[in-house]
Each structure stands twice: as C-alpha cells, then as structure tokens.
Design goal:
homodimer; 435 residues; alpha/beta; Aldehyde Dehydrogenase, Chain A, domain 2; 2 domains
Chain lengths: 435, 435
C-alpha cells in the first residue's frame, strides 16, 4: 500500500469513528466511482479477482481463525446463545466452503453485456436490450461472517460495487475477511472500493446506507424478520427482500399417497429453520381419513407437533387445537398446522389468505387441477408434486443465491446473479430520425 | 344494474364524500378481489372487454362530449391556461384515437401465462418461469382524460386490476368514461372493480392510494416532475416513474456530418415538450468548427436558442453563455445547451454527471467508440446514430406504453404490457424430495 493511500485509509477510519453520516457518504461516493469502473470491467478481470480472493483466504487461514476467536470470545462474554455463536464461528471447513464458493461464482457465466431481443423496426433502427449491473448494492446482514465473502463475490461477478454492513458481533472476522478481499481486488487491478466493509458498528451507519439513493441503487437485507421489516420501512432506496416463509402443501383427493407422504415429510422435516419449509398442510376432505393418520405416525417419529382444525382433530385426537394465529405462523420449528379443506378452491382460498407468497405446493395426479394451481396461486414459487424445499437458487440452477424475494417487482423467488442486474435498451441506427 | 348493486354503489359514493380513507380502503379491497379473478381470466374475455369498451365509447360520444364541455367550462372559469385546456379537451378525433387504442391493445399478444426457460434439473424436477400480472396497479395522472382509457386498457390486458386517479379538472369527463368502462367490463363478464375510477377530488385520496401496500402492488404516476417527486417520496408501495429527461447527443470526430445534422435537429426540434427530446449537445473539439456553424444555421431556422460553453461561443458568438444550471436543465422548450468536449471520455464524463439516465446518443462512424458508448453509458436507452426521439414504446415495438422508467429496478426505459407483469417460478415434479 502506498503512503498516500495508507494516509487516505487512516483518514477514513478516523471519520468512521467521529462522523458516521460523513463516513457513509464517503463510502457512497467511492462506491459510485468504483461502479463506473466495474460496469466496464471484462469477465476476465472480475474472475481473476474472485480467484485471487480465494487464494488470499487460503493463505490467511491462521489470521482469519484468530480474528474469529476474538469475536467468539467477545460473544461469549456478551452472553450470545449457542446458536448465534455457531453461526458466528469460522472453521477450516467453513473457510474451505468460502473458497469453493468463490471458485464456483468465478465459473458461472457473466450476466453482464448480454444483448437480447435485438430486432429491426419499421423505421430501420435495431432495438434490443443489454443486461447491465445495477450499480451500487448495499447489503446488511447479521452474524455469519461468510456472508461477507458470498455477497462480495456475487456483486463483483455481476459488475456491481457493494457496501457490506455485517453484524457487530463479527467485526474482527469481517475486518480480516476484508483484508483478503482488498488484496484480491488489488491483484486483479480492480478498484479497492469495489467492495467496502463498513468499519463502524454504530447503528447510524445502517440508517445512512438505506437513505442515500444518490449513491446506492438497491438494498438487500439478510437476517431476521424484524431487521428486514425495519429496513424496508425506513429505506429511501429499493429493497430486495423476503419477510416470511409461510409455505403450504395441499394434498388433493387424487394425490398419490406415497408421493404425498414423502413430500409432506420432506417439506416439513428436511430443515425446520428455512424459509421454504412447509408451515401449514392442507388435506382434501375426500382423503383426509386415509392420509392424515399415516402422516401423523410419520410426523410423530420426527417429534413434530401437530395443530389441527376441528376436522383434523376428529381424525387425529392427539393434535392440538389450531388457532387463527397458527394459520399465519412461520414456526421455523417442528410444529405443523393442519387443515382439512373441501377441494382445490377451498385450498387456494386458504393459501390466498394466509400464504406469504413464498412457496406453495400441490400434490395431485389430476392434470386440470395441477394446471389451475400453477396459474392461480400467486406465490414466488408454485410447485406441483415436489417438496417446497426445492425453492432455492442452487436447486433452480441459478448457480448462486443472494436471497429469496417475495416482492413482485424486479426479482421474485430465488435471486441469483441476474437479479443483481437490469436491462437497458440499445438502439443502433444509420442516421434515422423520427418522422 | 340490480337494486342491490345500485344500493352498494350509492353507499360507496356517500363514503367517498364522508370518509376518504375508508373509501380508498374499500376500493383497495375490491381491487384485490378483482385481481384474483383477472389473474385467472383468459385472453378471450379480456379482449372481449376491450372491444366492448370501444363500442361503448363509440355509442356514448354525445355524453362524453357533453361531460367534457362541463369540465372545460369549469376550467375556463377557474382560469386554466390554454395548454391545460387543450390537454383536457375531448374531440371526435380524440375519441376515435381512444377507440383505435383499445382495438390495438386487444390485438397485442397476451403477456400473461407465458412459461419460459423450463428445464430439467439434476434432481428430476422441471423449473421454469411463468409471466403473471402484478396484481393491483394505482395510476395517478393529471388533466388528459384519454389516459383513463389508455391506462385501463393496458392494466386489463395484462390481467391487473387498477385504481385510476385522474385530475380534478377532468372529473366529469372521467365519470363519463368510467360509465363506458363499466358497461364494457360487464358485457364481458369481468368484475366491475377490475377498473375503478376514484370518485373524489379530495387530495387525501392520493395519500391513501400510495400507502396501502396490502391492496396496491405498484403506483405509476404520470404528470409533472413535482407530482412524481412527491409521490415517490411519500409512497409505501413501489413506484414506476421517470423524473427527468435530460438527454444528450454526442457528435464524435468521425461522425458523418449529414447524419449528425439530421439527428441533432430531429432530437431537438421534432417535439420540444417530450422527455426524449435532446437538451444538451456535445461536440468533439476536432470537428466543432466544421459542425457547429452549420448546426447553428439550422437551429436558427427553428428559432432554437443556443447556450454554449466558452469554446462553443468562440465558434458561435451568437450563443448565450451556458451556466452550470444549463447542463442539468430539462428545458422542454426551443433552447439547447451546447458543449465542446475532448473526445468520448470527456463526453461520457459529462453524461455521467448530468444525464438523467433517460436517453443518450452518439453519432459516430467508429466501431470501437460505438461499442464503448453502448456498454459504458448507464442510461435506460443508449442510441448509436439515431435520434433520441425513438425512445418510445411504439417505436421500440412494445405495441403500447404506460410510461418511461428511469429507475433501474423492474422496468427500465419505455414500459409496455410486460412491465405490468412479473415472473413467478413454476416447479413440476413426480414426487421429488430434497436430499
């Protein structure tokens, strides 16, 4: 590092401590300038940076683990619970996973620059669309330090500058990861401010980041529902987000019982804490007496607590009584709400009312019902005869995932590299003027 | 109309006068319910409704003109200026244009339901994307009553329910147009609340419309910059908008002088008041002495006032001195800012700083410069060797245009039917579960 740039960085660090709004504005201006360079960067230099960052991580293992130990130590002193400490921890295996992730993102096709739908118009001009980066992306996340590398790699590959605000509990880990990012960017000749890790834990930094439309094009919050809800409410910049995953599986009268059982069990028990986990099971009254007892036995083995409607409880006396809150609940736990419904219209009405429009599935062998469910259910993923757990960027073949959006505009469902880009129109002429 | 529904409508009208927030909530709930029906409506019934509305307009000409006369009369009494009165006026020709517009939208392909990129994944599931309506669209516009029909037709065709808030000066005209819309919807068997025209001129209606995310999925404001800026600031719902059209033409040293002249004249003088009109001309210093005097003679014929940088004024002493404000100005008038620049980098730096990212053009015969301009200029339309005036939904072949977006997310540039839709993921399986 040159003396001049070291001085510059020291001045920035001092600003982070003394004047958070001015510091965030400075980060914003730098990001905007870096975005201009990244917009024109070719795939080769972006991929070289990703590989260089991977090499830096590999070389920095002792420093990363040491920094992480400091965070863990502080976390224990501050009384963080075991689950949070686990998310915070870096291990050799997790460093391996970050390195593999960087290499995988490097190997993905570059979305930037693709020109599509280029056609001649009657006036003689050619009109098409070119895929381009969004510009500057602000990402706000909580404890897991590996998100720093994941988010940086996806933004870099898609030609966006990013400003990353991680959890305060991971501050030392994120600083160590940032050193690897900076070294990798430098060796590939990309601007250091292509990726900027916010150096203050002051909460005012988040407030500034989400209210600078002149410097930030989109905010992606990753974390708990309350964090995301607050950011969405206060942001003056578009937010790509999902709040809830209240996902349904509807077992229709014509469902293959073996498929229905396998899907329902997998959708609930494969992982309890994920947003694409089933939270409510709907069963057609015509087959409830056949399906529910068998399902209940299977769920009992997984120690899943069932909360049912009246008709469910008539068949499964062991189920607790479901209340109105249960139909809207995202348990993220071994609990399942169960409702007996009268056919697909009743099922779709329940989904219309209670679904968070994340992922909803039908199990059916009826062609027309599958077709209706697909067209009429207004969720970001609509699934026929498969587990809701498939709603995931990797399973969908996006090659990466920065998050899942339950918004309707721009990006809906799992968001990969394409969701971090936009399309502009390009017009080619030979001197044409408008008549 | 049945007695029950007439009673219902009278109750709604009373609510519009007594309690605007409650009235808007009622419109929102009705729109949400209608959106569910429209989502599943086939192209045939939507097209039948469009044709029926056209027939209703044709049959209602005397009533439309009479209602419009009342608006014009009131406008004159309230001192509206001539330009506003002209925008407000309905004529036989403008009614013809509305009818033709409806028929054209009817003839466009239905964007809804298209499934794309459907592929098998290693797990055996098929994953694709299905194009679906956004849901409920709120449109806020000013005096031109024909926007009522245009907006309603595009929302209907794309399967969206809409709530239309026109200018208070067009209230009687909009009520008469709404009668045609309602009759057309009814005859096609679509819900009357598929299109709702706000019946109160109370400004609180706008405030309510833009802050009901539970009922409205997107707001499209059409009108002056201050209206759009205010709505964007206060909305709690995504807004599709453009604020400014500060469009540039850059004439490079290799430009064909005849093409450069034709494009610059057309981009400025074809229409002064449109957002894709050129506001600043950039000329490479290498050809400024050749190009500028000829351009100045041509602009003089159109009585376009020139405001130039120092180097421009050295060549064109008749030009006024351009100030910093001129580079950022959207004149919407026969005024043009002119700057002499040193090559493409200087030109792109000017555009990066002052462009509103609407439409920017280069005139060049140099392949590499054309390629760079296309990739590096971050505007919603980037044009090579053609007039900026082509940035338009019809010229681009969208078949229709609800507006032009200078936002980056969701829709960028001219917004047609596709911009009123979104894509959800559809997953087809045979009982697959996640491993």
């Amino acid at each position: 590092m040159s003396v001049a740039s070291a001085d510059h960085d020291n001045a920035l660090t001092a600003l982070a401590e003394s004047d958070v709004p001015a510091y965030m504005k400075e980060l914003g201006q730098r990001a905007r300038a870096a975005a201009k360079t990244l917009r024109a960067a070719d795939s080769g230099s972006k991929n070289r940076a990703l590989c260089a960052i991977a090499r830096e991580l590999d070389a920095a293992r002792p420093a990363l683990l040491e920094a992480n130990q400091a965070d863990l130590e502080r976390g224990r002193q501050n009384g963080l619970d075991a689950a949070l400490l686990d998310r915070l921890a870096l291990t050799e295996a997790r460093i391996d996973a970050m390195i593999t992730g960087l290499e995988q993102v490097g190997a993905l096709p570059d979305p930037v620059g693709e020109i599509s739908a280029m056609n001649y118009r009657p006036s003689g001009i050619q009109v098409g669309k070119m895929r381009v980066p969004l510009g500057v992306i602000g990402i706000i996340f909580e404890s897991r330090p590996n998100v720093t590398i994941e988010a940086a790699s996806l933004c870099l590959k898609s030609g966006n500058a990013c400003i990353l605000r991680g959890g305060s509990e991971a501050q030392a880990s994120n600083a160590a990861l940032n050193a690897c990012l900076q070294a990798g960017l430098k060796s590939a000749g990309l601007p250091s401010s292509a990726v900027q890790v916010v150096a203050t834990t002051d909460r005012a930094a988040v407030g500034a980041l989400i209210t600078m439309p002149e410097f930030v094009d989109v905010i992606i919050p990753r974390g708990g529902k309350s964090l995301i809800a607050r950011i969405s409410l206060e942001a003056r910049v578009p937010v790509i987000k999902h709040l809830d995953g209240v996902c349904h599986v509807y077992i229709d009268a014509t469902a293959d019982p073996a498929k229905a059982l396998a899907i329902a069990i997998n959708a609930k028990t494969h992982r309890y804490g994920t947003c694409n986990t089933m939270e409510t099971l709907l069963v057609d009254a015509a087959v409830a007496d056949l399906i529910l007892p068998e399902l209940a036995r299977a769920f009992a083995e997984f120690e899943v607590e069932l909360r049912g409607c009246e008709r469910t409880r008539a068949l499964l006396p062991q189920a607790l009584e479901a209340t109105e809150e249960d139909w809207a609940a995202e348990y993220l736990a071994p609990i399942l709400a169960v409702r007996v419904v009268d056919g697909i219209d009743d099922a779709m009405a329940h989904i219309e009312r209670y679904s968070s429009q994340h992922t909803d599935a039908i199990v059916t062998e009826d062609y027309s019902l599958a077709r209706r469910f697909m067209a009429e259910v207004d969720s970001s993923s609509v699934v026929v005869n498969a587990s809701t757990r498939f709603a995931d960027g990797f399973e969908y073949g996006l090659g990466a995932e920065i998050g899942i959006s339950t918004d309707k505009l721009h990006a809906r469902g799992p968001v990969g590299l394409e969701g971090l880009t936009t399309q502009k129109y390009v017009v080619l002429g030979e001197g044409q003027v408008r008549q």
